[in-house]
Amino acid sequence: MENSVIEIIGAVLVLLGAIFLFLGALGLVRMPDVYNRIQAGTKASTLGTFLSLIGLLLIIPAWWGKLILLVIFILITNPVSSHVLARASYCIKVPMFKKTVVDKYKEDVVKLFKKDENND
Amino acid sequence: MLQIILAIFLGIIMLILAVIAVQNKNVVVAIIAAGAVSLFASVLYLLLAAPDVAMTEAAIGSGLSTIIFFYVLNKIKRQNG
Amino acid sequence: MVNTILTIAVVIMMLALMLTLYRFIKGPTASDRLISFDVMTVSSLSLIALIAKFSERIIYLDVALVYGLLSFLGVIIVARYFEKGI
């Protein structure tokens, strides 16, 4: 069982990524409404997948091409999907948690509708 | 040993998702659960060392059938007013 | 040493999949289930990368790329249906 230091650092990074994935899933269970669940789940899962792929890159350096492609793909698509999800759940009027204090998106929606009416 | 445990775990997840897809009243939830069953079947095929079957299963079961289901659902909703 | 740590990581990812499955069963609205689907697919994407390391075949990473692309496509389609219809 002779491993170099780089491989052990990579394995610890993979373990850290798995822990972040677990914390994201825990936030998905514990949070009270849809928007908090989006914010807890997708950010933590993005960081977890990023860390585990980087750790795998340190363990096997010969696979760098496809691993870096996967990392760039994850970093582009996962925030886009969370943003689209939040916008869609606002559009179908999913109820907020009753202790929510501020809703900034409402003013922006009103402004956008006014601009559309002016254009028409 | 780890592969056997992982295969049993993925099978149990697929079974629970299939029960949700059959029993739930909401149509959108049923379609999402059917897509999730197909994605986990893809991981299971990958565990059985068949990457080409896994790729085809993910493309057809999750991509194409979900698009067709939502297209038809949209047409039905528009016809009923 | 490395294989032991990676086995522990696989077990923790299986626990995370179990928690997201709990939210999928319990969730009151359809949006909750969609978020749970998103987190579940991203978790199993890194599980696929670890399976590729254990069996030492680079072709499995191609499957991971297709898998990520199709889960993203599914989330976008359902969200567009929620917003204005496809």
Secondary structure tally, helices of chain C: 3
Head-to-tail CA distance between termini of chain C:
51 Å
Strand fraction of chain A: under 5%
Shape of chain A: elongated
Q: Rg of chain C, please?
A: 15 Å
Mean pLDDT of chain A: 85
Quaternary organisation of the protein chains = heterotrimer
Summed up, the helix count of chain A is 4
- Note the run of SSEs of chain A as H and E: HHHH
Principal-axes geometry of chain C comes out as flat
Average predicted local confidence, pLDDT of chain C: 89
Distance between the termini of chain A: 72 Å
Order of helices and strands of chain C: HHH
Low-confidence stretches of chain A: none
List how many beta strands of chain C DSSP finds: 0
Summarize the main sheet of chain C. none
* Biggest beta-sheet profile of chain A: none
Structural class by sheet pairing and helices of chain A: mainly alpha
Word description of this protein:
The complex is a heterotrimer of chains A (120), B (81) and C (86). By secondary structure, chain A is an all-alpha fold. Chain A has one domain. Chain A contains four helices and no strands. In chain A, helix 1 (5-30) runs antiparallel to helix 2 and helix 2 runs antiparallel to helix 3 (64-91). Chain A is elongated, with a radius of gyration of 20 Å. The mean pLDDT of chain A is 85. Chain B has one domain. In chain B, 90% of the residues lie in helices and 0% in strands. Chain B has 81 residues and is mainly α. The radius of gyration of chain B is 15 Å and the shape is elongated. Chain B contains three helices and no strands. Chain C has one domain (2-83). The longest helix of chain C is centred in the middle third of the chain and has 26 residues, at 30-55. The mean pLDDT of chain C is 89. Chains in contact: A-C, B-C.
